[in-house]
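Dear all,

This email documents one entry for the complex benchmark we are building for the journal club exercise. For each entry we list the sequence lines for every component of the assembly. Then comes the predicted three-dimensional structure of the complex as a token string, followed by one or two observations. Please use this as the template for your own entries, and keep the labels exactly as they appear.
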Amino acid sequence: DCERGKKFDIALLSVQWAPGVCASESKRCTVQYGNEFIIHGMWPNYIDNRYPQNCCFEPFLHKDNLDLITNELRRYWKSLYDNDSWGFWIHEWKKHGTCAKFSALKGQFNYFNTTLNLFKQMPIPNWLTAAGIKPSNTGIALEAVREAIRRGFHGRPQLACTHSSSGLPVLSEIRFCFNPESLAHVNCPAETNSCKSKTGKVLLLSA
Ligand code: 5GP
Ligand code: 5GP
């Protein structure tokens, strides 16, 4: 079963903060990681936060199509759960890539290569450093993180958190929005806020 996949409004680049993901998925995180942002996926989205998935366009991912960029994918789009990221790429292609069949993201090579190139142009750690934000085990203001990212990227991001026993939400992902045709940076729609806490603070954990 697959969807036809209409033209979408936003290409949403989801980036994982490895220590945040692995704080709640400690049993699943079997690979080495440090204080690093890595790609989770590039997701077609409609403006109302709905999204197409599992579209009919070339659902079977062919290894050959990624030969030229496999080394870069292993570095920037690695699975935290599996030493061989291939299964993760298959999943992301099948669920999201098949629906991203327009402009610069159309097709298997373009989908992965365009996403890599967009990601490599984003010095996220520098944006945080410029705002005086560094990973630690004490809470920082959610809105300070959002503002630091917004300034660097020139567009409002979505922030996503997981929850740990310590109480404060743990920042696990930052999601960036692009115009799917021009790839211009745009504001994301408001997120369903998994990062909300009474104090307005979140953890940007250190590895
Ligand atoms: P979570 O519930 O962890 O935020 O998301 C679970 C999965 O749902 C994600 O891995 C992704 O495949 C999909 N998903 C979550 N939020 C979005 C979104 O805003 N847009 C799209 N296209 N997919 C999403
Ligand atoms: P999504 O949230 O995109 O629907 O699904 C992510 C899927 O990819 C899950 O089934 C998850 O088990 C698998 N996966 C493999 N490696 C990773 C990883 O490093 N991060 C995340 N979020 N999911 C991964």
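Observations: Strands lie at 10-17, 37-45, 140-141, 158-163, 169-178, 185-186, 201-202. The chain has a mean pLDDT of 96.
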